[in-house]
Amino acid sequence: MKGLVAENRQLVIKRDLNMPLVGEGEVLVQVKSTTINLIDLEFAKGKYDLFLKLARNNYTVKTGIEFSGLVATDGHAFKKGDRVFGYVNLLKSDKTHQEFVSVNEQYIAKIPANLSFSHAAALPLGALTSYVALNELVNLTSDSKVLIIGASGGLGVYAIQIAKRAGAHVTALTGENHLQFLKSLGADDVIDYHANPLESLKSTYDVVLDLSNTKLYKQVKHLLVSDGVFIPAEPNKHFLSFVMNAFRKRKTKYLYVDKGDSAKLAQIANWVAQGEIQTSVDSEFLFEDYQSAISRFLQKGRRGRVVLNFE
């Protein structure tokens, strides 16, 4: 079995990996497609080694968190041959940059019939994180105004659609090459951040969702209504802002989705099946060409996910 292994802070393919053991409540999945994410590169560089050690994660493959594939062993909720997609536990699970992975059944859902493996792999992390941010951390209505920073990436393309599904007015902040693309996903307004930097914007919003992982509360405060909510995608940069929530009406909400959720993924899959949400794949590469996939991921101007296919 082959997979990606971090050696000297670099990812390399190993072809003699052991088949994963299947634990209680898990199924073995033959991975058909997976994705490249920033956290994969951070795991490879050792940024989270201490956290993995504390979580007692001794798995050989430490990169790859979302995937699609075929169930290879019967479980309780899923049977051999089921087409599934999901999102493994960030710290405690085996990872998906390998041909087979053992996955907790609570982290996966069945792929809609109208979706390919590659597009299914591009769905779980971005859609589930956006779902939690915009359905659980805030209560959107038809009067809500939402600003999404980093709207063309692997999370933003779903955040736009989920916010629109809730009836909100959505403004997307992105580069100039994505204006029509994000309009096609449902964004009411699309702003080119080169021509209109964040600090120059005059409108105010009920929710500012930062999927670029670059903004602090003080940089978006002027964009929030008096009781507005700021949701950063990387909460560990915002400890002071969480503390200050006790002293102000404007709040910073804690967004952390560290694993799949079968029920929520099934709901998202149903939306996809009904045509209410469309998936977005920027580019696809064969697994052996993972270096090109990483290079594409590091380029600006992506639209959605960079996908690795095993065949």
UniProtKB/TrEMBL annotation:
Judging by the UniProt lineage, the source's domain of life is Bacteria
Query: Residue ranges of the Enoyl reductase (ER) domain?
Result: 6-308
SMART domains listed in its UniProt record: PKS_ER
By its UniProt entry, which Gene3D superfamilies does this protein fall under?
Medium-chain alcohol dehydrogenases, catalytic domain (3.90.180.10), NAD(P)-binding Rossmann-like Domain (3.40.50.720)
Cite the InterPro entries for this sequence. ADH-like_N, ER, GroES-like_sf, NAD(P)-bd_dom_sf, YIM1/Zinc_Alcohol_DH_Fams
Classification via Pfam families? ADH_N, ADH_zinc_N_2
Its name, as the record gives it, is NAD(P)-dependent alcohol dehydrogenase
Origin species, per record, is Pseudoalteromonas spongiae
| Lineage of source species | Bacteria, Pseudomonadati, Pseudomonadota, Gammaproteobacteria, Alteromonadales
